Amino acid sequence: MSAYEISLLSVVGINVILAVSLNLISGFCGQISLGHGAFYGAGAYAAALTAVATHNLVLALVAGAVVGSLLGIIVGFASLRVRSDFLAVTTIGVNFLFTGFVRKQSWLGGEMGISSIPPSGLGATGNMVLILACALITIALSLYINKSWMGFTFRAVGEDEDAAATLAVNVASYKLAAFGIGTALAGLAGGLYAYFTQFITADAFDFVVSVMLLAMVVIGGIGSTWGVAVAAVVLTLLPEAIRFLNDYRLLVFGGLLVLMIRLAPGGMAGLFKQLVWRSAKP
What is the residue-wise DSSP string for 96-136? Predict the structure, then answer.
């Protein structure tokens, strides 16, 4: 396997983790977040600083997940007072605040970022295997949550918070749980990214990244783990397969997003179910 293929598969794995983790928040629990890049970045910076200080891969990844989750829970408290569009605007603000804060802090590398991240010791192939394994674990965790009592409650909160509350559901706790779990996985992805690139800057976690991740969720099918995972793979590989599209990545994502909303509101997962139903119909 060439270095290019290893690098591409590593990026695919990271994007799968990010898209599936965002789906836990926005797809399962109905909390629209346009600031997922901030939690991704928080995990990356936490892991990078821990790696520089300790040279311990496991400790660095745990630090990334914990810091991402803590920031997510803090933002989750904001979701207790705002809903729908107002929550989306709040999370956008979080993303801009994060990147602006990082750029002004010399201990975080400022505009130059952190370039002294030590290698994981696994090599390029080992890093890829670790990333893909984490992606599969993330998918398995999402599928488990979806079928569990927590998943049913998440969907109840996402459908109608007031109705869920009348059924004795602690809406606040489940919202915070969704943010905590989803952003912990985003922080883990950030830690993996830091080790993969060995160099991070605030630009890698800006608002554009958050928009691309939400596009993966919507195009894959909000609430569908497999649909979102497949969309993350396809939308990561598509610009690489068609090189001239690479400079128009946002235009491609935006166009696909509009087409999906207009022609297939259920995303790729919904479209697949429709095709299966029609083929099985006598």
Answer: HHHHHHHHH-GGGTGGG-B--PPP-SSHHHHHHHHHHHHHH
**Are the C-beta atoms of 41 and 202 separated by less than 8 Å?**
yes
Give CA–CA dist 190/202, Å, rounded. Answer: 12
Other C-beta atoms lying within 10 Å of the C-beta of residue 246: 12
Closest to 42 measured CA to CA, from 145, 189, 180? 189
> What pLDDT was estimated at residue 245?
63
CB 115 within 8 A of CB 48: no
Q: What pLDDT digit, counting tens, does each position of 37-92 carry?
A: 999 999 999 999 999 999 999 999 999 999 999 999 998 887 777 766 778 888 88
Whether the CB-CB separation of 200 and 45 falls below 8 Å is answered with: yes
Phi/psi region, residue 252 (left: phi>0; alpha: psi -120 to 50; beta: rest), is: alpha
Q: Are 249 and 239 in contact (CB under 8 A)?
A: yes
What lies within 8 Å, CB to CB, of 269 at 6+ separation is 220, 221, 224, 226, 227, 228
> Which residue carries 């750029």 as its tokens?
103
Residue 250 burial (CB count, 10 A) = 12
Confidence at 242, pLDDT banded by 50, 70, 90: low
